[in-house]
Amino acid sequence: xxxxLPIAEIPVNMFVIFGMxxxxxxxxxxxxxxxxxLLTPLLIxxxxxxxxxxxxVTTQVVASSASAVVSYWRRKAIDLKLASMLxxxxxxxxxxxxxxxxLLQQVGQLDVVISLSYVTFLGTIGGxxxxxxxxxxxxxxxxxxxxxxxxxxxxxxxxxxxKMRFRRSKLYVSIIPILGLGAVIGFLGxxxxxxxxxMMVPALIYLLRVPTSIVIGTSLFQILFTMSxxxxxxxxxxxxxxxxxAITLMxxxxxxAQFGARMGxxxxxDQLRLLLALLVLSVGVRFAIDLLLVPEDLYSIAxxxxxxx
Length: 309
Prior knowledge:
By secondary structure, this protein is mainly α. Helix content is 69%, strand content 5%.
């Protein structure tokens, strides 16, 4: 069944788009990620313009995150105070990201920046997560306990000023890295259409030492409101949100997130990190291949903002 997208100005198969939303929603609930880092490339690979893909994916991330947050809220697995501080930084980062997105779109460099950024971020973070998760699994098989710090133990971050106590996560830590982390996630969400959970979850676990049982729900809660802000900023500023595409993705995402949230409770932390690392790396590799291949059409024509008729 063909569905015409008014902003993207192309027809697409409705069931394929619905399936993409459902699959990414499932991963959102399973890993505690927004899923945009996967959905945005899938839409771009399907022929939808990068600008429309990035801006519209923010709406799907909102829907799938909201659905999964309900499940974690019922289990009291969210640190609301920590999520709120992350959110403050996230909203500021989202606004700055939309401004840069609009600037890159006007100068015609948005597509290249998106591709290079995906290769860099996904390759680096996916590689680090893969090494760590494989090491943890090997230690578990040998019968040795993984070397990790318990919540409350200190690292260099705990020496920073402006500390705040987060009782749900058993933390007493500076708000500076928390605001900074939220701002980075919000910025990347606006520019690349990613919820940032694939960065947020490892950062909360390894830098702030947030308990694993709290991380996923807290990450999703922050992603929910940060990406809501990004959606509003894109709708007003860049006007590249395709509502037809967004609704189709959201319906599939909400359904998939519920199944993912339930299955995520049955896997160990090291298994989840290994699967997420492989997923992140695979998307980064695909982008790298596309950058290296010679396109079929060496030249293209596009209408930029401000162009007169």
